[in-house]
Write a structure and sequence with these properties.
286 residues, alpha/beta, 37% helix
């Protein structure tokens, strides 16, 4: 017969695993709630770039305002030498999640000098644009901006190329399912945004803006140039290799650099020349 004085301690020992499990479940669910609530700050960290925004657009761009409920900016640069009798091809630049369209103006001007019209759609809540960003509204705004630009007589709507960087590649893939481009360039592309959920200790189904590029590319046959960086600390190069394997018509190039920069000028030149040659082949060639 057991001593009665030992019974409470034995009961506590028996209940300890259950108590640990209960606390773990509550902690896990609480963390998932926090991740779900604050996910937009991670996916669209516009607070990093909205602190110092120019009050107006530069003089050399035309501003298109899209969005039926709020004003969302898109910059349009005309191609050098374009006219109604000689419509130009167009490149749509979709920036990263910690950038503004203003940050891609130097690139846009270079493309403009090479004979391309350039469209830079802003994301809601970024820069001078109103509203809050999200996959559905960004897609809707970008599609409206493309339709507005390609309706012009000086732009050839059949020769439109997309250029995405980081999350902008996911936007490009999402948009391409609705407006097929002539070609696309993806720089440091994530396979999906929801795929990053487990790195924050949360299941992918909690992500409201999954941006499943890995599901979009098997449906797209347009020429695609994928550029990844071998030492990328944000989007591992394995993700670009995976997308290359899923795409039906892609070329993969790898460069020495991290997510936001390449290590030397020769790599910058190599990537820039590869991108310009790719667009020339698919948008300028007769």
């Amino acid at each position: 017969m057991k001593n009665r004085d030992e019974l409470p301690g034995e009961a506590r020992n028996r209940n300890l695993p259950g108590s640990i499990l209960f606390i773990s479940v509550i902690a896990c669910l609480s963390w998932w709630v926090l991740v779900s609530y604050f996910q937009e700050r991670f996916i669209f960290p516009r607070f990093l770039v909205n602190a110092d925004v120019a009050t107006s657009a530069p003089d050399d761009v035309e501003v298109l305002l899209v969005g039926k409920d709020v004003n969302v900016e898109a910059f349009l640069l005309q191609a050098a030498g374009s006219s109604e009798s000689r419509p130009s091809p167009m490149i749509v630049i979709l920036h990263g999640n910690a950038e503004l369209i203003d940050d891609r103006l130097d690139m846009a001007r270079r493309f403009s000098d090479l004979g391309y019209a350039v469209l830079l759609p802003e994301y809601r809540g970024y820069g001078r644009s109103g509203g809050s960003p999200g996959q559905d509204v960004i897609r809707k705004d970008v599609l409206e901006a493309i339709d507005r630009a390609t309706a012009r007589v000086d732009i050839d709507g059949d020769r439109v190329g997309y250029y995405g960087i980081s999350i902008g590649t996911a936007v490009a893939a999402d948009v391409a399912l609705r407006r097929r481009p002539a070609c696309m360039v993806f720089v440091v592309p994530p396979a999906s945004i929801s795929g990053f959920a487990w790195s924050f200790g949360a299941p992918p189904f909690l992500i409201r803006h999954p941006f499943r590029t890995d599901e979009a590319l098997p449906q797209l046959t347009e020429p695609l140039l994928i550029c990844s960086n071998a030492q990328d600390e944000v989007v591992p190069p394995e993700q670009a290799r995976m997308l290359h394997g899923l795409a039906g018509n892609s070329t993969l190039l790898e460069f020495e650099g991290r997510h936001n920069f390449l290590f030397d000028e020769s790599e910058e030149d190599r990537r820039r020349n590869a991108i310009e040659d790719f667009y020339s082949e698919h948008l300028l060639a007769p």
